[in-house]
Amino acid sequence: MTVQDLAPVRRALISVSDKTGLIDLARALESLKIEILSTGGSAKAIREAGVAVRDVSELTEFPEMMDGRVKTLHPKVHGGLLALRDNGMHVASMAEHGIVPIDLLVVNLYPFEAALARGAGYDEMIENIDIGGPAMIRAAAKNHAFVTTVVDVQDYGALLEELKAHGDEAQTSYGFRQKMAQIAYARTGAYDAAVSTWMASAIGEETPRRRVFAGELKQTLRYGENSHQNAAFYTDGSNRPGVAVAEQLQGKELSYNNFNDTDAAFELVSEFLPTDGPAVAIIKHANPCGVAKGATMKEAYQKAFDCDRTSAFGGIVALNGALDGETAEAISEIFTEVVIAPAIHQEAKDIFARKKNLRLILAPGLANTAEAGLAWKQVSGGILVQDRDNGALTVDDLKVVTKITPTEAQMLDLLFAWKVAKHVKSNAIVYVKDGATVGVGAGQMSRVDSALIAAKKAERMAQALELPQPLTIGSAVASDAFFPFADGLLEAAAAGATCVIQPGGSMRDEEVIAAADEAGLAMVFTGMRHFRH
Ligand SMILES: NC(=O)c1ncn([C@@H]2O[C@H](COP(=O)(O)O)[C@@H](O)[C@H]2O)c1NC=O
C-alpha cells in the first residue's frame, strides 16, 4: 500500500441517527459532485430536501431488514470501504463482484447513551446497540489511507473545508483522514464502553473480567498538577451535575488543580440539601478548611471562613444555594480562586465582575451524593475501581455507646461533623460547633496528629479573632475511622470536645469507650467508615 497524501472523494455513504446538519452536509456534498449513498431514514430526509441520493439497498440489491438490524452489513458496502485502491488483487475483486469504492463515510450511531440516560428498559437498550454503524466506521477508519471517516456532527464543517481545500476536485489530506480515523476508533471504543458498562450493571456483574473507561475531551489544560506535566480534562458522558457540566461565567480558565478542588468543594457542599438551609464549603488542596451552615448564605460563608482564615486565602468556595450580593461582597474581601454555586444573582455577578481573575462557576443543581456509581483511581500498571462513597447516615443509624447520651443539639453537630469528615483526607478529625467546623485535621499518618493539628488551628483562630477560648471547647468531634487506641480520643477531649462520632469496630473499643466515659464524653458509633485517600 502506498499512502497518497490527497485522496479523491467521489462517493459518500451517509447513515446517521442524529440528523443534525444532515441536509446542509448533503447539499454541500452534492455541490462538490460527490455521489451520495444512504440508508433508510437518512436517505429519506436527504431526498425530501431535494438532494440526489441512492439507497444502499439499491447498491446491495438487498432490502434493509429485521427492523434495521441488517442494512449495510454487505460485501458491497464493506468491500467499497476496505479495498486498497492501489492493490491489483483488490481492484480485480471489486471489478469481479461489482463493488464500487466508497471514499467518504459519515455515520453517527444509534443513541445508546441517550437511551441509557432516560433509563430505558433492557429490550430497548438492546435494540439501541448499533451493529452496522460501528462495523462500517471500523472498516473505513482502517482504510484511512484512502477513505475519510466522520462520526461527529461537529466535524462536518472541517470536512467541507477540507474537501474544498485541495483544488477543483474534492479531496482530503492524509493527515485529516488519520485524525478522523483516530476519532472514529475512540467513538466506537466509547460506544462499546457504554454498552459493556451498562450490561455489567444490568446483569449484576460487580467486578466484570474486562472493563473499559471512555472519555471525551472537554478541554486541554495549560498544565497538570505541576507546570512540567501536560494535562487535559475528559468527561465521562454521565452528565452528573458538577465541574464537568458547569458553566464558567467569568475568570481565567480552570486549571487542573482548580478542577480537582472545585469538584471536592462541590461534592462536599452537595451533602447539604437546600432544605438544610444555606451551607458553604471552602476547600484548599482538596481538603475543607471551613464548612458551615448559616441562617443566610453570608453567615454560612463567614462561619466557614472563621474556621481557618489563613488557609482560606486562595481557596475554592462552594455554595449549596444561590450566591447573593452580600455573600459575593464578603467572599471578595480576600483572594479566592473559584466560586461555584447552583444559582448566582445578578448582583453577585456584578460584584465579581470587578475581580477579573476570580473564576465564577454556575452548576446545574447540586450533585446527588447518594447516587450509586463507580470511582476510579490509577495506580502503577492498573486502575482501582470501587463504588462511589455514597454512604449517608441519620440519627437512627447511630448507636450511643457511652453513659452520657448526646443532646439533640450535639447530635446535629455530630452528624454535621460526620458529613464533613467523609470529604476530608484520612486520617480525618473534624471539630464542629453550632453547625460550623472549628478545626479540621486532614491527611495525617496518625489520627492523634490530626486531632492535635485541628486543635492547634482552632487555638490560632481564637487568638486571631480575639476569642476568650478556642471554639473546640464544647465541640462535637468526628473521626473518619475508629480510634485504634484511646490516645486520639483523649487528644480531642483535651481540645475541649464533649461528644464524639466514630465508626467503632476497633479491637480496643471497650478501652476507648471507658476512656470516653471517664472523660465525661458522649460517644456514638456509626458502624460505617469514611476513609478517603
Ligand atoms: N444494521 C445495519 O446494517 C446498520 N447500518 C447502519 N446502521 C445505523 O443506522 C442508523 C441510520 O439509520 P437511518 O438512516 O435509517 O436513520 C445509523 O445510526 C447507523 O449507524 C445500522 N443499524 C444497526 O446496526
Automatic annotation (TrEMBL):
* InterPro entries linked: AICAR_Tfase_dup_dom_sf, Cytidine_deaminase-like, MGS-like_dom, MGS-like_dom_sf, PurH-like
Q: Which UniProt keywords apply?
A: Hydrolase, Multifunctional enzyme, Purine biosynthesis, Transferase
PROSITE patterns, A to Z: MGS (PS51855)
Domain (MGS-like): residue spans on this chain: 1-151
Catalyses: IMP + H2O = 5-formamido-1-(5-phospho-D-ribosyl)imidazole-4-carboxamide; (6R)-10-formyltetrahydrofolate + 5-amino-1-(5-phospho-beta-D-ribosyl)imidazole-4-carboxamide = 5-formamido-1-(5-phospho-D-ribosyl)imidazole-4-carboxamide + (6S)-5,6,7,8-tetrahydrofolate
Q: Which GO terms describe its molecular function?
A: IMP cyclohydrolase activity; phosphoribosylaminoimidazolecarboxamide formyltransferase activity
Quote the Pfam families the UniProt record gives: AICARFT_IMPCHas, MGS
Record family assignment: Belongs to the PurH family.
Q: Protein name, please? A: Bifunctional purine biosynthesis protein PurH
Originating organism: Sagittula salina
Q: What is the lineage of its organism?
A: Bacteria, Pseudomonadati, Pseudomonadota, Alphaproteobacteria, Rhodobacterales
Point out the gene that encodes the protein.
purH
